[in-house]
Specification:
mainly beta, Neuraminidase, six-stranded antiparallel β-sheet, four-stranded antiparallel β-sheet, 5% helix, globular, Soluble calcium-activated nucleotidase 1 (inferred by orthology to a human protein), calcium, Apyrase_sf
Length: 319
């Protein structure tokens, strides 16, 4: 993937790439034993002078990225996209594989197993960010409960810290995730689910855009309409936490949830471009792109991406 930033009188233009998680539709055809994700190229134009932003997607830029790796007939359900140690990486939330994305190939790099690292199942990885020269990989950040409301696994409360050579540390983030949901007003059995997070070296803080929030225990039908407009920031030790509502109540749509975001370069990590997804009753999938400031001001309202594809990873190309 080329890296490019273009300066124009109307602002600064960045190349961007989005990637899909198509769930069961990722299999190219029944019995093919090939699974795919789709990448799409576009341009982000940001003008700090008049506080404006726009996104355009390049026609006919969609490209299949394929693999034969799968878990019980599922694979290539890619949930984020980032550059690390000179490579563009994406996690498969079904197999636990971290792939290097190179042209139309998904090249396996490392396998992450679930929870504390002694399990046989793959990690359901949802977000990635870089901190201190290492790659941080996290999941939903909530315990999973059965229909009776009893916890049957806390694996999603663990994160992974990966070195450039692929060494993996397994870190229990239970307390950190618990502090986030309590401060946001969703203590257990309520929950937040996280699919996007970033560490900011500039602010020395964590930034989270939770996808879902509910004051009650998880119920699938309610969860589908529990998307948030929350931006949560936390100090490195999670002792100081702040919650901002993006756009306020008037701009809140509980059917659209954040699935990925990036800070726009050269904004002191104060402007964000994000992807949202809409999934309700297994009906038509929708994805949207939006731009806003960390104080909650929206610069680009939700803009729908063409086709019924669920994009869950976003990468801004920079020099």
């Amino acid at each position: 993937m080329p890296t490019d930033v273009h300066k124009r009188s109307a602002g600064v233009e960045y190349d961007l790439t989005a990637i899909t998680d198509m769930d069961r539709d990722a299999e190219t055809s029944k019995g093919s034993w090939t699974w795919r994700a789709v990448t799409r190229e576009g341009k982000l134009l940001y003008n700090p002078n008049d506080n404006s932003a726009s996104v355009t997607w390049t026609p006919n830029s969609d490209k299949n990225v394929t693999t034969h790796f799968n878990y019980k007939g599922r694979g290539m359900e890619l949930s984020d996209l980032t550059d690390f140690n000179g490579h563009v990486l994406s996690p498969d939330d079904k197999t636990g594989m971290i792939y290097e994305i190179k042209e139309d190939k998904a090249i396996p790099w490392i396998f992450l197993n679930s929870g504390p690292g002694n399990t046989t199942s793959g990690m359901k990885a949802e977000w990635m960010t870089k901190k201190g020269g290492k790659l941080y990989v996290g999941g939903h950040g909530m315990e999973y409960r059965n229909k009776e409301g009893k916890v049957f696994t806390t694996d999603p409360l663990w994160i992974k810290v990966v070195s450039p050579n692929g060494a993996v540390e397994h870190i229990d983030w239970t307390d950190n995730y618990d502090k986030l949901r309590k401060e946001a007003g969703y203590p257990s059995p309520g929950y937040l689910t996280h699919e996007s997070a970033q560490w900011s070296d500039i602010h020395q803080k964590w930034f989270f855009l939770p996808r879902k929030a509910n004051p009650k225990a998880y119920v699938e039908e309610e969860d589908e309409v529990s998307c948030t407009n929350l931006l949560i920031t936390a100090s490195e030790d999670f002792e100081e936490i702040k919650v901002v509502k993006i756009g306020g109540e008037a701009k809140f749509n509980p059917l659209r949830g954040y699935s990925a975001f990036e800070f726009i370069p050269d904004t002191d990590d104060s402007v964000i471009v994000a992807i949202k997804s809409k999934e309700v009753n297994n009906k038509r999938i929708r994805s949207y792109v939006t731009v806003f400031k960390t104080d909650g001001e929206i610069l680009l309202e939700d803009q729908k991406l063409e086709d019924e594809l669920k994009f869950e990873g976003l990468f801004l190309h920079r020099k």
